[in-house]
Design goal:
Elements lengths: L1 H8 L3 E5 L11 E3 L3 E3 L13 E3 L4 H4 L4 E3 L7 E7 L9 H5 L15 E2 L26 E2 L4 H14 L4 E6 L15 E5 L4 H8 L17 H6 L25 E2 L2 E2 L3 H10 L1
């Protein structure tokens, strides 16, 4: 169990730590805004229930910090959000309209129209499909959890000069230009226990992980990358001029430049 827990600690990537926001040592007061889940249509029909929930067990948070309900009383805010979710890339409604069914998978929170997508796909020709071209160029999708982006921006406005720590739960590259400007500290979590995240935020453990993927500058960069060329993505650059490229990560001292980084960057070229 200890080895498993340590592995989780070593997987969390810190991308931003403006003005050395982290670690938050001592019994600080924290404001944890609730997440709003809209009603989302399922892949096989049906719609999920709209709800607003606590993003983390507050009883666990209270072991590290004093939880307050008003942002004006807090020393810092903690936002826990999920990667953009726009669906699986296929739409029955598009088929009903006469389309090929394929729609974009967006990596951003705002509505997305695939103006830069390939006009003719590199895949197609399934005998069960009417079209041999799976292109989704010009089609639009909405992100179901756009409210995650709104939550971070609203929280920063409420907190003013006080720091906002943002943790994004993801398993794929995402466009962070909508989140990073509102985050004083930004961490990427790959489905770890919340206790792990709180250990890092409070300084009980130091972040040491490196990005296992590139974070795109925007969706244009996503559409223009070559599927058969590794690490060719135009990556996002944050307010501290750090580029969220493969093998990037921060610890308490700043940008990590250990033997792993040298090895991976050399293999990257």
């Amino acid at each position: 169990m200890k080895e498993g827990y340590d592995a989780q600690l070593k997987s969390v990537v810190m991308l931003k730590n403006g003005n050395q926001t982290l670690p938050m040592t001592g019994k600080k007061k924290v404001y944890v805004p609730k997440r709003h889940f809209p009603a989302i249509p399922g892949m096989w029909g049906g719609v999920s229930e709209e709800k607003t929930v606590e993003p983390v067990d507050l009883a666990l948070v209270k072991k590290y910090f004093d939880v307050v309900q008003q942002p004006e009383l807090a020393d810092f805010a903690l936002c826990l959000i999920y990667e953009p979710s726009s669906g699986v890339g296929y739409s029955k409604a598009d088929v009903m309209r006469g389309g090929n069914g394929y729609v974009p998978v967006s990596l951003q929170y705002e509505d997305y129209t695939a103006t830069d997508a390939r006009a003719v796909s590199i895949a197609g020709g399934d005998p069960m499909e009417r079209s041999t071209n799976r292109s989704f160029k010009g089609k639009s999708v909405k992100t179901y959890n756009r409210d995650d982006m709104v939550l971070v921006a609203d929280t920063k406005e409420k907190m003013g000069d006080k720091p906002v720590v943002v943790i994004v739960e993801t398993g794929r590259p995402i466009v962070l230009s909508e989140i990073e400007p509102h985050a004083d500290a930004l961490l990427i979590s790959f489905n770890v226990q919340h206790q792990v995240l709180l250990d890092i935020i409070s300084g009980k453990a130091e972040p040491s992980a490196l990005l296992p993927m590139q974070m795109p500058a925007d969706m244009k960069a996503v559409e223009e990358q070559q599927e058969d060329v590794p690490h060719d993505m135009r990556c996002y650059k944050d307010a501290d001029n750090n580029v969220y490229d493969f093998a990037f990560g921060l610890n308490w001292s700043g940008v990590i430049r250990d033997d792993r980084v040298k090895k991976y960057q050399n293999n990257n070229r």
